Automatic annotation (TrEMBL):
Key words, A-Z: Membrane, Transmembrane, Transmembrane helix
Region called Disordered, residue ranges: 68-122
Source organism (scientific name): Actinoplanes aureus
Protein's recorded name: Uncharacterized protein
Low complexity: bias regions: 89-121
Transmembrane intervals: 40-63
Length: 253
């Protein structure tokens, strides 16, 4: 039997194909949205690794502050709780995958699952006019310790916000804090977090620190035995006029 031809069928198919041209703008919008969500998810562990300096500028919202209990009246809440508005250096940008999930190929190849590795924290003990060093005090013993953070500035500091974070290992409990800066010039507080004790030192408004060396100490009790301070960190943001410096580091035993 002779094959029958339908010339009008080709014309109809072409017409339908032209009517259903993909909306390129809508496709690109969906792809960009998916990529941004993927990049944001990848950045979350990196942002968490910013640790202590991020805590300085967060304002300690929602954290119970125990205040300065080392003699004298407790400083006004406005003086101790005023959050810093300085912005941190952004976390490194994670490049999104070049293959969007919204586009489906006719034949889907097998893909090897990849795991994103969080980059290590980059400690920065020196920044501009500011230097820092953090060690355990020589008087620390098997049940009690004092972490000393020494800041050395080559410029007159006009604002300073500093944090020492003591990891809450077995038996860790706050027992005090002090600084070589005169007490009337600085506000000291302790915040209790689930995973750490946060000691904060803020230079009072209108006060300055001349070039030189200053010590900030966090004191705490811990379970009997040698305690590794490797989980204790610190961060500080300082200004000297228009100059800005920020340091971040870890305590040495």
């Amino acid at each position: 039997m002779a094959e029958r031809h339908y010339p009008e069928l080709g014309a109809v198919l072409r017409e339908e194909a032209e009517r259903h041209v993909p909306d390129r703008a809508a496709m690109l919008t969906r792809i960009a949205h998916r990529r941004s969500r993927r990049a944001f998810a990848a950045l979350r562990p990196v942002a968490a690794a910013a640790s202590v300096v991020a805590t300085v500028v967060a304002g300690f919202a929602g954290i119970r502050l125990t205040g300065d209990r080392s003699g004298g009246a407790e400083p006004p809440a406005a003086a101790s709780m005023a959050p810093t508005t300085e912005a941190l250096s952004p976390a490194p940008t994670v490049a999104p995958s070049s293959t969007p999930d919204d586009v489906t190929a006719p034949t889907r190849p097998n893909r090897t699952t990849s795991t994103t590795t969080t980059p290590p924290i980059r400690w920065q003990p020196v920044s501009g006019f500011l230097r820092s060093a953090a060690v355990l005090d020589s008087h620390s013993n098997d049940t009690w310790a004092q972490g000393n953070l020494t800041l050395t500035t080559a410029e007159t500091i006009t604002t300073l916000d500093l944090v020492i974070s003591v990891a809450r290992t077995a038996g860790v409990r706050d027992t005090g804090k002090w600084t070589s800066v005169p007490t009337e010039m600085i506000t000291m507080t302790v915040a209790e977090e689930k995973g750490a004790l946060i000691y904060r030192y803020t230079l009072n408004e209108g006060r300055t620190l001349a070039p030189g060396e200053y010590v900030f100490a966090a004191q705490y009790q811990h379970a009997a035995g040698k305690r590794d301070p490797g989980g204790d960190t610190y961060g500080a943001i300082a200004r000297a006029g228009e100059k800005r410096a920020e340091v971040i580091g870890v305590f040495q035993g």
